[in-house]
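Backbone-to-sequence.
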């Protein structure tokens, strides 16, 4: 763990300004990290390989600097987790300074490792599954393609024996085992399935160009956390932006629209706008 804390401190120092070798070593020492030139070079090499932070040395200026940080979701999540772990470590015994939103804690994390190993080694997953509403669990098995996180849950995308495809929440899986199989391994990647989907549910609908009129203030949040990789934002009028998405208009996306309430208006497609309008009328009738 000490190594990872050193990494986050190196990133923090070099993001602030370029440093010479001696300056960097001195700053690390001030922070309580035992570093020498050999340790520093090893850390720099491993940081590039493990978390995609590429640090270079400029021989002209004698400065170390961050050349680039790979724009990769996995690397970004690793760096985020390192920084989070360092922050938790700084709490020491002051547990009352930090509170977690239990509603959005990520479920299924304890099953991540065995499922990842099965995906990586192309082994069949065998497990007990109990969905909501089931009195007892049932044995299931399938070939794991990839994992996906959405709305505080981890899911594994499985191809079953009958070629049925399922998204199984990891927190509903128990007694997981991975077994060797001679079945032909399907070539299915995340973007093959979810390129035009918001959320986890897959509906048999064509993708559409959805246009939303979004208030300027709300749009600041969408710029920071896009609804979907296809999201584009342009000017609409003085008070609004036009947000365009190329996705399937799923049930989960409707829920997202409703969560934004009066800050968003669906403009296109017309049939989707009408569908939202009818749902709003149905909802309003419940309060009359």
């Amino acid at each position: 763990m000490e190594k990872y804390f050193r990494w986050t401190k190196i990133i923090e120092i070099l993001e602030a300004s370029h440093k010479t070798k001696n300056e960097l070593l001195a700053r690390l020492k001030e922070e309580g990290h035992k570093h020498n030139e050999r340790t520093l070079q090893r850390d720099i090499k491993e940081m590039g390989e493990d978390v995609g932070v590429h640090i270079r040395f400029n021989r002209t200026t004698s400065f170390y600097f961050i050349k680039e940080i790979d724009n990769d979701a996995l690397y970004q999540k690793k760096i985020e987790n390192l920084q989070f772990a360092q922050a938790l470590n700084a709490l020491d015994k002051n547990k009352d300074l930090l509170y977690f939103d239990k509603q959005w804690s990520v479920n299924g994390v304890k099953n991540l490792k065995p499922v990842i190993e099965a995906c990586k080694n192309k082994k069949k997953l065998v497990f007990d599954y109990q969905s909501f509403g089931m009195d007892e669990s049932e044995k299931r098995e399938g070939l794991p393609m990839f994992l996906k996180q959405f709305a505080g849950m981890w899911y594994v995308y499985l191809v079953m024996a009958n070629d049925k495809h399922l998204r199984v929440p990891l927190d509903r899986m128990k007694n997981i085992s991975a077994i060797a199989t001679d079945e032909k391994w399907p070539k299915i990647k995340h973007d093959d399935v979810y390129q035009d989907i918001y959320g986890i549910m897959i509906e048999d609908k064509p993708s559409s160009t959805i246009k939303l009129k979004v208030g300027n203030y709300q749009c600041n949040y969408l710029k920071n956390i896009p609804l979907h990789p296809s999201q584009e934002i342009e000017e609409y009028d003085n008070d609004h932006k036009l947000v365009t998405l190329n996705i399937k208009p799923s049930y989960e996306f409707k829920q997202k629209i409703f969560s934004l309430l009066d800050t968003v208006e669906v403009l296109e497609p017309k049939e989707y706008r009408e569908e939202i309008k009818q749902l709003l009328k149905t909802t309003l009738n419940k309060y009359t």
